[in-house]
Structures are given as structure tokens and as C-alpha cells.
């Protein structure tokens, strides 16, 4: 009852004239242990619509470790769908890698992409899918001219992580040559089908388990604290954070715990829906220049390195809401602006306690990199979009404060 009362009080503070899409288009999603078997029904549906040539978009490690070939290959063959495998997906895909996949798809006359993996696999495939409906365009054109993507060839997403949400959303991200990671968006980028099978995450190494689930944590917190938040996104975010707080430590220490994997994948899915309708803000805005400059930076780890400093800034705007969102991690928060630094220290301690103590210096950045990070964050094509939903003004001073304060631990 107390949580319900707090939710109602928070909702009364929302802008009641802010219009949002309660039921946006999104893929038919099959969720649960064993959901991979639904690839047979999906293949049958695709063939009934004249889709008879597919490119499987993956990488060698994911393809072999998840053993999905035993389900995908027979399903496609039984329905007369020819396929080829593109297994060159890299973390933080570049414009060049997206263009490469699009060119291969044109030569193969592909009519659908089937992704097996996480966010990078979906980003690569979604971008290529959009390029096939925009002849003469390159990935650079799409991302830097901010083209709204209304059409793309179909994408089927088989998710193997519990973090990105990209299997359910209308976004894609790619890395430029200049240290940027801009995004494209639009209804054409929603996959047509998604498979969420927690069993496919059992082979995730501990570092990826932590990184992907923490990505979902940040999706949730940001979506609940944007200017465009709404009751739907906020409740989804609160649920996702509570599930992650409970089950991520379990999955990190018991990698074969299927219940932990199930609830983390569910949390990731509803977090993806949450930010799909309410957007994101500072943490993602400032992490993208980091992983663009250093592609070896795991996205979720990079977000976690800067989140405590972001919380220091945003907590003062939404103290009660932030305290509620973090109540399962920092139960003694009172929801007053003066405890922003306490919340900052405690969340950093919690990240360290579950195995992610990383700060910017641990990720290879130094004091000398701050100027470039600030410049790339401020000038990125993505920043104005995120700044519009940020609870605080995105100035050079704010950005510099966050990067500098995130270089080393504060607790």
C-alpha cells in the first residue's frame, strides 16, 4: 500500500497534458524458457508473406555457444527459406560494418535479417535493413542527417542477453569516425518478431552478465526521470530496477540459475519498452562518446562508471522519485535533495559490491581525455535529442563535472 501511495503521489506531479503512445507498435514477442522453438512458427509466417531469403546476423562466439543452429537451420529449411550467415558483428558497430552488411544483403537479395545476439547485432541489422529501403544512402547519411526511419526490411531478433532492449525498440546506434555514437529511430526499426529465451543467456560470461543487466538498470532509471516520463514507463522502470537489484547478484554468482536469468531478461524487456516510450537522458548521452573513443568499453560498464555522478546532478530534481526507484538498493533514502551525495556514494558502493567497481581510469581514460569527451558529448548529433528530455540542462559545465567526478571512486 505504501508503494502504491508513493506511485500515486508521483503521478500527480506529472504533466497531464504530455501526450504519449500507450500502445506503440512493437514486435510479436515470445518470452520464456524454450521460446527459441517458436522460430518454426516465425519461419512459417515469413514464408507465407513471400519472404524466402534470410541473412543470420551474429558473431562466432554467440552462434557457437548458444547452439541455436539446431533450431534455426531446420526451421528455415523446412519452410524453403534460403539463408546465409554474417558473423562479423563487433561490439559498438561502425558505419562501415553496417554498410558492409547492407551490401552483402543486396547481393544476396535478402528479404529478412535474423539477429542472434544482443544490442550490437540488432544495431547492425536494423541499420542495414533501413539502408535496403533507402537506396543510394550510406550509414553515415542515415545517422548524421537524422533521417526518420519509416521503412526497413523485416528484422527478427533472437535475444541472447538481458540488457539491451533493442529487440523491442525503434532505435539503432552506430559509431562514427569522429568519436560519436549517434542514433536513428522510427517505426521501421521495430523488429517484426522477437524471441526472449532466458536459456540462451546461460553462457554469458560474468562480465557480460553484469554489463548487460546494468544497461537495463540505466534504461529504467533514465526513462523514469526524463521530462517525457509517464505512468506506464515509470511503473515498468520501478519493476525492472527491483528485479535487477534482486536477481543480478544471484546471476553473477550462480551463472546457471535459470530463475535469475528469466527475471533479468524480463526486467530488460520491460526496461526496453519503458525507454522506447519515454526516451533516455544524461547517462547514455555521456557514455556514447566513451565507447566511441574506446570501443573496448562495454556499454553497460561505461554507463555504470558515470551513473553515480549523474545521480548527484539529477537526484536534486527528482529526490522522492529517485529514492523510490533505488529503494531496493539504498533502503534508507528519505527522498530529500540534500542526500544527493549520499545516494551517489551508496550506489557506487553497490556497483562495486556486485563486481563493477570500474571508473573512467579503469576503462583507460585519463584526466587528459576529459576535454575531448566533453567536446564530443556536446557536439554529438545525438545530444540535442537527449538534452530535450534531460531533467537538467546539458551544459559544458554539467558534462565536465560528471566526467571529472567519474574518473576515480568517490566512496
UniProtKB/TrEMBL annotation:
Lineage: Archaea, Thermoproteota, Thermoprotei, Fervidicoccales, Fervidicoccaceae
Organism: Fervidicoccus fontis (strain DSM 19380 / JCM 18336 / VKM B-2539 / Kam940)
Family designation: Belongs to the iron-containing alcohol dehydrogenase family.
Annotated Fe-containing alcohol dehydrogenase-like C-terminal domain residues: 209-406
InterPro entries xrefs: ADH_Fe/GldA (IPR001670), ADH_Fe_C (IPR056798), ADH_Fe_CS (IPR018211), AdhA-like (IPR045910), Alcohol_dehydrogenase_Fe (IPR039697)
Protein name: Alcohol dehydrogenase
PROSITE patterns: ADH_IRON_1 (PS00913)
UniProt keyword list: NAD, Oxidoreductase
Pfam family, one: ADH_Fe_C
